[in-house]
Automatic annotation (TrEMBL):
<keyword id="KW-0275">Fatty acid biosynthesis</keyword>
<dbReference type="InterPro" id="IPR001095">
    <property type="entry name" value="Acetyl_CoA_COase_a_su"/>
</dbReference>
<dbReference type="Pfam" id="PF03255">
    <property type="entry name" value="ACCA"/>
</dbReference>
<keyword id="KW-0808">Transferase</keyword>
<comment type="pathway">
    <text>Lipid metabolism; malonyl-CoA biosynthesis; malonyl-CoA from acetyl-CoA: step 1/1.</text>
</comment>
<dbReference type="InterPro" id="IPR029045">
    <property type="entry name" value="ClpP/crotonase-like_dom_sf"/>
</dbReference>
<keyword id="KW-0443">Lipid metabolism</keyword>
<comment type="subunit">
    <text>Acetyl-CoA carboxylase is a heterohexamer composed of biotin carboxyl carrier protein (AccB), biotin carboxylase (AccC) and two subunits each of ACCase subunit alpha (AccA) and ACCase subunit beta (AccD).</text>
</comment>
<comment type="similarity">
    <text>Belongs to the AccA family.</text>
</comment>
<dbReference type="InterPro" id="IPR011763">
    <property type="entry name" value="COA_CT_C"/>
</dbReference>
<feature type="domain" description="CoA carboxyltransferase C-terminal">
    <location>
        <begin position="38"/>
        <end position="292"/>
    </location>
</feature>
<keyword id="KW-0547">Nucleotide-binding</keyword>
<keyword id="KW-0067">ATP-binding</keyword>
<dbReference type="GO" id="GO:2001295">
    <property type="term" value="P:malonyl-CoA biosynthetic process"/>
</dbReference>
<keyword id="KW-0444">Lipid biosynthesis</keyword>
<dbReference type="GO" id="GO:0005524">
    <property type="term" value="F:ATP binding"/>
</dbReference>
<keyword id="KW-0276">Fatty acid metabolism</keyword>
Length: 325
């Protein structure tokens, strides 16, 4: 049984009522099929009303759900022959980022992603999905290796942000993120990024400079958390719900703003409700992206990325500054 969010309470209560009636029918051998059918119809409509009209703060809650699939969950289903690689060859290994080589439908690829835990023990091991500099340097090492062997790079983004602790700053957190952004912009292989949960600040951008950027329907992508924005704007983090509504951080908003390329649909209630079906949706998008980008030459891939980011934030009527290279 999945844990549920506050706004899902009416759905859970109705499901429990249906289960109770079915159990009563079996035990007492009383025909309650009409009543059960009526409640099931009501449940179907209720789910459409709730999950079909999610507000930004509700999507934030789903993106943060403790049972939401992680990078390794998707790797296990989407790829074959995955071989994880460790370390940045400079300091150490950061388990908040996982990466390695694998095959996608028989084609060699490099897969990299943020990795958070699903319980306290694993979250401590993964530092709650907040990477240190060595995590980003490991990611960059794998990207450059992918470029050397002409492998597409697929990134999964799911982090509240880069770890802001003293040790991370001492080891060059901001430089590591900035270098990733710079180097990703010039990679001569296809780069696809998928936001699968939270995409927070520079910690997300360090894996987010792609030819194509996709988001799961209930994921978020923002420069700051709603709580952080609330604290800055109203000096009170309790206005996070209001902040999330004004920040345009959800997949529908970012698709409308043309910051992302595709919004990947989620199973009703969120990806954690049916991982296998969610994998099907992601698989289709990845296959289409790789097929499209395979047609571009190395120079065209870099120019494609340049043009993509030049267009972001333009006002109506403005033109993209052409590349000088």
């Amino acid at each position: 049984m999945h844990s549920y969010l506050p706004f899902e309470k009416p759905v859970i209560e109705l499901r429990e009522k249906i289960a109770e009636l079915k159990s009563f029918t079996e035990e007492k051998e009383i025909d309650l099929s009409d009543e059960i059918s009526t409640l099931e119809d009501r449940l179907e409509q209720l789910e459409k009303d709730i999950y079909g009209n999610l507000q930004p703060w509700q999507r934030v809650q789903i993106a943060r759900h403790g049972e939401r699939p992680t990078t390794l969950d998707y790797i296990n289903y989407l790829f074959t022959d995955f071989m994880e690689m460790h370390g940045d060859r400079l300091y150490g290994d950061d388990e908040a980022i996982v990466g390695g080589i694998a095959k996608f439908k028989g084609r060699p690829v490099t897969v990299i992603g943020h990795q958070r835990g699903k319980d306290t023990k694993e979250n401590l091991k993964r530092n709650f999905g907040m990477p240190h500099p060595e995590g980003y340097r490991k990611a960059l090492r794998l990207m450059k290796q992918a470029e050397k062997f002409s492998r597409p790079v697929i990134c999964f983004i799911d982090t509240k942000g880069a770890f802001p602790g003293k040790a991370a700053e001492e080891r060059g957190q901001s430089e590591a993120i900035a270098r990733n952004i710079m180097e990703m912009a010039g990679l001569k292989v296809p780069v696809i990024s998928v936001v699968i949960g939270e995409g927070g600040s520079g910690g997300a951008l360090a894996l987010g400079v792609g030819n194509e950027i996709h988001m799961l329907e209930n994921s978020t992508y923002s420069v700051i958390s709603p709580e952080g924005a609330s604290a800055l704007l109203w000096k009170d983090a309790s206005y996070a719900k209001e902040a999330s509504e004004t920040m345009k951080i959800t997949a529908p908003d970012l698709k409308e703003l043309e910051i992302i390329d595709k919004m990947i649909p989620e199973v009703r209630g969120g990806a954690h409700k049916d991982l296998e079906q969610q994998v099907v949706y992601i698989d289709e998008v990845l296959e289409h992206s790789l097929h499209t980008l395979a047609k571009l030459s190395e120079d065209e891939l870099v120019l494609n990325r340049y043009d993509k980011y030049q267009k972001i934030g333009l006002l109506a009527g403005e033109n993209v500054v052409p590349s000088t290279e």
